Every structure is written in C-alpha cells, then in structure tokens.
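OP here, attaching both records as promised.
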Amino acid sequence: MRFTLPTLLVVSLVAAPATARAQSVDPSGHWEGAITIPGSEIPFQVDLSKNAQGKFVATYSRPENNLNGLPLANVSLDGRAINFELTVDGSVKFYGTVNGDGTTIAGDVTARLGNAAFSMRRTGDARIAAAPKNAPIGKDLEGTWNGTLSLQGTNLRLVLRMVNDSDGTASGTIVSVDQGGIEFPLALTQKASSLTLSTSAIGGDFYTGSLTAAGELAGTFSQGPVTAPLTFVRSK
C-alpha cells in the first residue's frame, strides 16, 4: 500500500520552542489545513483524540485523493508542542505548535527529500471511526497471515490478523511492515472460501482472495488502476 506525497524541499528537523513545551493544551478535534510548497498548497486533514488508555491517537486524510483516516504514528504532546508521523511513503514528520487558545497548529513537515511549512485550524470534534465489527469468519481464516506485495519494483511485507471476538463478531487488521508498521483496521467479508478485505482509509475494497487446497489465501490486491497478485501464508 504505497501512497505518493508531493516531493518537498531541503530536509531539516525542527525543535519546538521552550515556551511551547512549557504550557499545556488539549489538541483533540478535527483539524483542516495545508502544507505550503513553492507555487501551491497541499490540503489535508488531521483528527486527534485520546484512546481508552489516555494516549493520543491521530489519523490523516486527503478526501480528494480518496484517503480517509490513515493512522499516524508517534503522536506526542509536550505542552503545546505536538509531533506526529505519516509512514505510508517513507517517513513524513510533522512538528507543530498549538497556539494559546488551541484553535490553530503551525510548524514544519519534513521528509527524506524536503522541508515545508504547514498550518491547521480546528473545525470541530475528532472524526476517528471505530474499528469495523464484522460477521463471524470461518475458523480456517482465523489467525495471523504473512504476505509480500510487489509493486513497481518495491516489495512490501504485510501481516494480516483476523479473529472471532467474544461478542460474536470478527475483527481484522493489516500491518504494512515496511511502511513504518502502519496498521489498518479492516472490514471482512467472507463468502464460502472467498474473502474480501476493505478499509475506508484507502477507498474501500483492496483485496479479494480464496483459500487454496494448500491452505494459502491467494488473490489480488487492487487500488485504483493498480493491481497485483498477493498471497498470504498462515504464520507458524
């Protein structure tokens, strides 16, 4: 699952000012903003919230690119200094400062090839969707599966986990090991030996496969016009 972000300029790391670290603010909410590069702006959205353990979680969206709710990694808050990382296309790190009344965040975004400014404004409550709950799946699908997706000369290791939960539903996640360990909650649809995986983060259905006589899950990955064979093997 590779997503291309526009190339930025001049890599640098940005240290948050001491005054930002000294004060505390709650950044929970839905934020809309843009990354500013020469000649244009890249619009994006971020949702920030606390999970049941009291830790901040965040997602990144670009609705015009059909990306909604991509999980962000390494979310941290120190006073008014906030950092988070997008790991689907290398490492894209955001270093920001929340203003005094908690309505805006501004700072720098850095990537392997560049650096640019960004700013966001809080527009409402966070919109982080709960993980999908699915109909129970067959015992032959439960467990951990490993696969490698080959796209445009790049190999991405994937870990698929599916389980029947105690409440009578099923849940699933897929982890892209080579993209910072980003984890996507999944909607699961089983019809006989066929399985479809879906996540709203990348536009819906992205994989359909079937159990083979050898006990593998063989099928096709698809995202927009891109398709590729993808086989999962149960982990031992």
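Record two, same layout:
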Amino acid sequence: MINMMGKGAYPSINQSDVESISVPLPPLETQHAIVAEIEAEQKAVDACRELIALYEGKIKAVIERVWGKDSNET
C-alpha cells in the first residue's frame, strides 16, 4: 500500500487501489476455529458481567446494612 501512495504533501491511496489489493483469508476450518474461540470468550465475558452485577448488588446490600438502611427502602 505504501508503494501505491502518492508522493505529494498529503500522501494517500484511492479507492481503486484499495479494491485492487488481494487480502488472503485463512482456510475455512481456521476461520471456524477463530469464531468458536471468540464465541467462547464472549460467553466468559458475559458470565463475568453477570457476576459483577450480582456482587454489586451484594455490596450495595452490605453498605445499606452498615449504614442502618433497610435494603427494601429506596
């Protein structure tokens, strides 16, 4: 791409240059493995978010108890 850029004050690349570039793709099996790994990581992130929400609730309840506030009052 650098070789395709103009040599002026503002080097740039145009759309036809970008369209002419061939981007190699990994084999389909590798693509599926990558997707599976990303999905597994997303499930872990989602589980962590749920855990955070659960513990935020627990922390709030403890703070309210420490300050003498009924957790049903809000």
